[in-house]
Structure formats: structure tokens, C-alpha cells
Amino acid sequence: MTGAPGERTAMFPQKLSKMARQLKLALKLNKARAICFAVVCIAAIEAKSVLLSDVACRIPGKATPKSKFRRLQRFYDEIKPDFKKVALFIMSLLGKAESQEPLLLALDRTDWKTRGNAVNLLTLSVCAGDVGLPLFWKDLRCKGNSNAQERIGLVRRFSAFFGAKRISCLVGDREFIGKQWFSWLKNSEIPFVMRLKENMHIVINGRKNAVKHYFHQLAVNRPVLKLNFFFKNPIKITWIIKQESVIYRKKNI
Q: Is residue 238 assigned to a domain?
């Protein structure tokens, strides 16, 4: 189908019907909504945006972009998906839903402003190559970083649905640090890798120093092994120096 003049509509593949069937079965949608959802997904990929105004311009058909925009608004107002089923659907697309294959998870946060409102989401994604696909998320409903309980709650949602043993490693940026948070991960036996600022101060054997003090003689990307640091039980720690930050990797012995 062709679009209105000036539109850059998506070139929909023949697999649209297959995607619609998968969405219908996975999310328990009726046929019309499943097709609409599949169209929206492909249009969003083509637009490289999830803004309804951008997506509407990629949807084929003779209707005006304004009319398509209103249709999308009605669609999102009416659909109430079960987000656990959405997570399972994403895992099934990756071929990881039924298997017990260990997964690399990434904790991240994204924020933006829309209509004068601040949106701040804490997300937990499954890594597929260089891409992270969000499985679970939490609206922090305020500006700034998350706290330990919010992070723990998000990881628990994954563990309750897929099992904590599926987590081969949890990675995160420099904002996801803290004793309570690290201790919970350690006690839950969840391997993790977190970045640390080089000027962050830590205490070892009663002496307080910046992180870079302990690793200034190491070359970039060269790991080193330390024992009995930060936690009560012996652990293996790998520090990887990357320019102005340090990646902290922890694993139980």
C-alpha cells in the first residue's frame, strides 16, 4: 500500500503475518490488535524511534499521518499487555525461553522529558551481542539515580520468572554501586561486573585510598586478582583498567 504524499512508509516484509501470529499467541491478543502491534513494531524499527509521530509516518496506508497518529493513541490506550508475557515473548524471539542457557543481563537507566513530565526508567535487559533488549523495568517517578531496593526488586522480578541461576553475569555502569546492593548480589550468588570511578575511595585493612591508588601500575585492560576484599567470605576480584574508570568483577570462590 502506498502512503500519503511526503510519507516515508515502511517496506513491510512478508513475515508480517508470522509476527502477528506470534504476538497473538504470546500476548493473547485478538487478530486485529496482533496485526496492529506487528505493524507498529516494524514501523518503529524503520523509524528508529518509538515516538508515535515518527512511527505514524512509516505506517502504510492512504490515511493522513494525523489520522494514523490518533489510531496509535487509541491502540495504546486500549491495549493492556501482561509484561511478564512480553518478557517471555522477547526471550522466545531470542530462542532462550525454553533453554537453561546462562544469560548476560545489563542494568541501565534512561530518562527523558515529555509534555513537561520527567520520565526515569530503571531497566533490566538481556544482552544479545551488542544489543540489550529490556525484559523488565521500573518507573522511578523522580529524577536521579535508583536505590538498592529498586535494583534488588527488578532483579527479583527476573529471578521469580526465569530463575536466578539463569544469570551468568549482571553488568552495570558506575551509578550502580553501594554496599547494600553489592552485598545482596553476593549473598544471592549472582556474579556481577560494575564500573567504578578511579577517584572513588575504598577502605582496605583500615586504610582509605582512591581506587586508582591500587592499580596505577597496571596496564589498560590487564586484569589482576585480589582476595578477601569488601566481603566477609573469600572472593575472586578482577579489576580491568579502562582509561579513567575501573571495572569491578566479582565471583565467589
A: yes
Nearest to 237 by CA among 208, 207, 202, 209: 202
Query: pTM value?
Result: 0.75
What total of structural domains would you count in the chain?
A: 2
For strands 245-252 and 192-197, give the pairing: antiparallel
pLDDT in tens, 97-129: 778 888 999 999 988 877 677 789 999 999 988
Is residue 170 in a domain? no
Helix axes 148-162, 83-93, angle to 10 degrees: 60
d(CA 17, CA 22) in angstroms, rounded, equals 9
User: Domain span at residue 26?
Assistant: 16-81
Let me know: does 137 contact 154? Beta carbons within 8 Å.
yes
Residue 51 lies in a domain: yes
The 10s digit of each residue's pLDDT in 14-38 is 668 888 888 898 888 888 888 888 8
